[in-house]
Fold:
Amino acid sequence: MEKREHKIFNHQMECMSRDERLQLQSERLVKTVRHEYDNVPMYRARMDEKGVRPEDIRSIEDLKYLPFMEKTDLRDQWPFGLLAVPKREIVRVHGSSGTTGHPIISGYTKNDLEVWSEMMARTLTAAGCGPDDIVHVSYGFGLFTGGFGAYQGADKIGAMVIPMSSGNTQRQIMMMKELGSTILCCTPSYATYLGETIREMGLDPNRDLKLKAGCFGAEPWTEEMRYHIEELLGIDACDIYGLTEICGPGVSFACLEKDGMHINEDHVIAEIINPATGEQLPYGQSGELVFTTITKEGTPMIRYRTHDICSLNPTPCACGRTTVRMTRITGRTDDMLIIRGVNVFPSQIESVLVNVDGVAPHYMLIVDRVNSSDTMEVQVEMTEEMFSDTVSHIEQVRRTITERIKSVVGISTNVKLVAPKSIPRSEGKAKRVIDNRKL
Ligand code: AMP
Ligand code: ZN
Structure:
């Protein structure tokens, strides 16, 4: 492959010396901690409990003394308890599915949207996007951050945006072809599906389409899947990472070297911790990724535990950026699954099952990928009594479970009622999930 030119959106911020950046991060951290302590009662109480005062935090070195934040904090403080500014300064909310049926949300001020757009502009630029490009956004537009994030970044660059949102694959491909989309933004599984459908329609991406690169993220994927997508669509596939709690996509992004994701360190501080002890781990060691936002006004996050597992690499990249790179996400420290972009915890399914008469709390979730789309089968044991009931009653219970799961978790599943004692028992920790997704 020919050597590519590396485009950089904000040379000053992305390529400054490590010392200069540490200084900037320290200054911003001190301000953030003060802002959070003064305005968010929950975090103030947590700092007080730990005996940490805002004035104890003088540089990035002191980060380790601060208490952590968790997804449960967002849920417990629903909907606006974590706001650090008056509600009238919030101009947007975004959210993602949480553990209790209602989503977790994050509030953005005007400036927060500006910062997020900048982060996404850097992300798209790193994949080769410039003002002449046509950015095809197949991430969903809505509470989910994917669609708006990609749109805002492309808009900041001055590129043309096609805000397709998700679904209607044939139409997506028609638009892509007729309008000449050059950059594709969607999940890696949808990119695969698009690629396969394009070929089924008798089109050759290299001949009939103008796509040159894609920014793919929002769910875990592998290097093998990246090669597969690059081959299928004839493009550069770049990994992009983010989470609603921090801002959405663009927290970090791969450049065309495709060797880890550059973290937007002038806006967030990344740490890797030992998930069991909370201790900071050195560069290169794998552990739980923790983020602190240092420019966010609406809902700042201090030492937010992502539960995503990766490691950090501080060596300068051939692209010229000096920011620390995170490796691909290799797993989670909790049991959260991402099914068609929705965060699903097995405990949510369990909470539905324990409230249904006639089934035992023995279940197994079988996750797979069919035609590049995630599927989930919920196998649940019937009680002996139920097992000998009429077929129509069993079907009725099955339907009830399906509907309740849909309303709690937000996704359609295939529920299967199985014979009593047919799900294997385990002597230790119960195995509730079989994830057959490959690539
Ligand atoms: P959400 O807030 O719903 O967008 O989900 C955020 C979560 O999606 C993260 O904590 C990760 O677990 C996952 N995620 C996002 N981007 C990636 C990526 N590029 N690779 C692996 N997992 C990702
Ligand atoms: Zn790079």
